[in-house]
Write a structure and sequence with these properties.
It holds the Pfam family Abhydrolase_6. By secondary structure, the protein is α/β, with parallel strands linked by helices. 27% of the residues lie in helices and 15% in strands. It has ten helices and eight strands.
Length: 337
Amino acid sequence: MTGPQPGGVALAPQSPSTAGAPTPTRPPSAARRPAGPAPRPAPPVPLPPWTPSPGVRQVTLAAGDGITLSGLLALPRGERPRATVLALHGAGTSAAYFDGQAHPGTSLLTLAADLGYAVLALDRPGYGLSAARLPQGLPVAEQAATVRAALRGHAALHDTGAGVLVLAHSFGGKVALRMAADDRGDPSDPVLLGLDVSGCGERYARPLAELTGPAGGVRWSGHWGPLRLYPPHTFRASARMVSPVPPRELRDAARWPGAFAALAGRVRVPVRFTFAEYEALWHCDAPALARLRAGLRAAPRVSVDRQPGAGHNISLGWAARAYHLRALAFADDCLRR
């Protein structure tokens, strides 16, 4: 299995190199052993079927043009939701990114529901159930329109509370920003409260050609940061949420710096960005953050946080709960606007 594309989940880092280690001496008995076929390696242990956390259920939503999106839904118990969090994953993963299984504290869905929020985490167009119909995926603009249609269908069936906060990771952040830029306040849509975006900026730290390898694979050197940032079994659990990246998504990733410049000025809701301490995909130094804020000139508020003790995939590490709590605090702030 190859790693996912920029903005998604990578497989476990390789173990340290053994280059330079002394070569063990072959015992005499081994020298006299008859030649024969090498023993076959043991087959890989299959991963158990993925199941959502308690209180989280799988859903499907019609999104127009014969497209059905799959996803996960968590609702607060016995009360009207304060608002709804629409969660959009990065490239190469799925809605399960927001329901981490390596440790209960990593799940956004269970935490937010406990705090009175509904959470709808969607498999973006080209992922999950829609992958068969959209094997090439969709460009960012069409993804934004399709997700909006699915959200409208969800709102027709469920109380969304005071509105919707879009919480998006990496490539999902591009879709979220496009949704906000295209928002016209249609009364048939839930009120857009704001955007909480992690692992997405306006300029890549390196050319994408340096990040992508043969056949669309990715060179993930240093992408996760230190292994101590993650609960045990994170990489095994994460393998169950890895998905192929649709080709159109890869092409749009290369165009993002120009696309951001064109759409950012139309975003008119509060935006919060979070960059991990060990973020390796995006420029997030002072000049880059100044450009990011300047581009969002119509947004009433643009804040930028750094998440200590985290790599790019913040919602899978020990820092997930702290990040999710800050995101929900931002949602509280948006409700008071």
